[in-house]
Amino acid sequence: MPPEPVFTIKDVYKIFYTPDRRDQRSTFAVRGVSLDIYPGTFVTFVGPSGCGKSTLLNMMSGLTFPSDGQILFRGQPIRKTNYQIGYITQHDNLLPWRTLLGNVQLALEYRGVPKPEREERARALINKVGLSGFESYYPRELSGGMRQRANLIRTLVYDPEVILMDEPFGALDAQTRLVLQDELLKLWSGSGKTIVFVTHDLVESIALSDQIVVFTQSPGEIKAIYDVPLKRPRDVFHIHKSEGFTETYDRVWVDLQQVLARAGLVKTGDGAAVQKGG
Amino acid sequence: MQARLAREEQLRRMVETNTQARHRHKRLTFFWARTGLLLSFLLLWELLSGRVIDSFFISSPLKIGASFEELFQGGKVFLHFATTLNEVLLGFTAGVLGALIGAVLVIIFRDAYDVVEPFFIALYGIPRIALAPLLIMWLGLGIKSKIFLSGLLVFFVVFMTVVAGIRMVDEGVINSARLMGGSRSQIIRTVILPASYPYFVAGLRMGVPMAIIGAIVGEFISANRGIGFLIQWASSAFNTSLAFAAIFLLLILVVGLNFAVNKADAHLLKWRPKNSEERITTTM
């Protein structure tokens, strides 16, 4: 018997409508999406900007709700903010008036964890991602990579079993991004956590995940779902040399290319020579 | 290798000393420029007075100095100064506290505030000073009416600024705090209020002159002590020098209060990038 899904997404629609703006018709952000996400898996959502990936994450976190259809979390419909998950966004949302240590402790403070314990747990994670020595620094004094590490561990610190990540490394330079992908995989492996990771980088998607969900440009439907056969642990720095990488890339790219072409981002034809969107 | 390290160390020190020297030079130049400007203004005033313009109207720095001295000799000055200072401080504190309480209420009852906001804006539009005679009628000739007027002026400017700040708080940060498990009051305490600090401090800055205006205008209308009363009394006695001396007294009050607000600012906002610091690193 297969395990119970963490998320069951059943024929979900989301319509955005801003009545204040004149001549503005309502738009479909998500259209008829159905998907099961199983515990302990690393799933990526890939697709061009504006394909409803982030909207879907927002609904999974209970920040917004479907216009129609249902999202179940462990079998229960989500009716309010989902406190049992972690949500990491591209914008780090660190509080500028708190030091690194203060920021990492925030969630534990909210949960009423006593001070010595929350400091200890925060320090342990700060060490783990190589930020020790920067505990008393304010966010503005940290580099982009350091801030995104801080963003990651401020969520890990309260140990959520499910983590939603919305293009968390999107704003980083290529090298830092690889380093952080590697750190994320190390933190995740063996943890049994479920991760849903939105990206528009196909290579990142293959390097990290067990399953790739390809979305089409608005109307925000699922185009296809692929399993990633690459063995773990993975070497993100040489992921293109891994067995099965090329095959997976080519298979997904055929779909993604069609999606991007329909969105007007690439021309169909020689797929390999065309820049990916974003 | 050794030689290179030594050379680099020397280079570093050279850049550091040069930058420091440049900054010192700039600070000194500014100081003397300001002093010069002030002295020439006073000198011009002194020269024009009695020669070009009747000194009855504009007095002169030396006469004002003499009046100032007289004021101190009588000892009465302390009574006036203390009265106004008292009104200003109490008015300022009450106004700021009221604004903070109001801001928290706005966060909690957002929809209710949206309902009353147009009325607030309308109230904000009428010059609060127009209320002064009424306030004196309601609260009496004593210090209470001045404190209330001063507090009212401070309240509005601080409240409006802080509410603008609250509106500016990034929705993403609030959502992220909600997802991390923050309750409403925790989010207000750890996110919304600190995020509005810069606005609060800006409000405090604008509040200082407001507090003084409230107290002085109240004293103009009816009082038997205070700096405003002194200015009023001196003017009605055609004693221009004394009026200017009293205004100078007011200047001391303003400078002192601004100094206090600057101190509070530096303390509250130590996480904010300091301009001077960043400028030093970017100039080299």
β-strand number of chain A: 10
Which of globular, elongated, flat, extended, rod-shaped describes the shape of chain A? globular
What pattern of helices and strands is seen along the backbone of chain B?
A: HHHHHHHHHHHH
How far is the first residue's CA from the last residue's CA of chain B?
Answer: 26 Å
DSSP helical segment count of chain A: 7
Determine Rg of chain A (CA atoms, Å).
19 Å
Q: What can be said about the biggest beta sheet of chain B?
A: none
Instruction: Name the beta content range of chain B.
Output: under 5%
Low-confidence stretches of chain A: 270-278
The topology string of helices and strands of chain A comes to EEEHEEEHHHEHEHEEH
Give the C-alpha Rg of chain B.
Answer: 25 Å
**Could you say how many structural domains of chain B there are in total?**
2
Count helical runs of chain B. 12
Overall geometry of chain B comes to flat
According to CATH, what is the topology of the largest domain in chain B?
A: MetI-like fold
User: What is the mean predicted local confidence, pLDDT of chain B?
Assistant: 88
Give structural notes:
The complex is a heterodimer of chains A (278) and B (284). In chain A, strand 7, helix 5 (174-188) and strand 8 form a beta-alpha-beta unit. In chain A, helix 6 (202-208) packs across helix 7 (245-262). Chain A has helices spanning 53-60, 100-110, 115-128, 144-156, 174-188, 202-208, 245-262, and strands at 7-16, 27-37, 42-46, 68-73, 76-77, 85-89, 162-166, 194-199, 211-215, 222-227. Chain A is an alpha/beta fold and 278 residues long. Chain A is globular and about 50 Å long. Chain A has a 6-stranded mixed beta sheet, with helices on both faces. Chain A has a 4-stranded antiparallel beta sheet with strand order 2-1-4-5, with helices on one face. The model of chain A is unreliable at 270-278 (pLDDT under 50). Chain B is built from 12 helices and no strands. The longest helix of chain B has 47 residues, at 2-48.
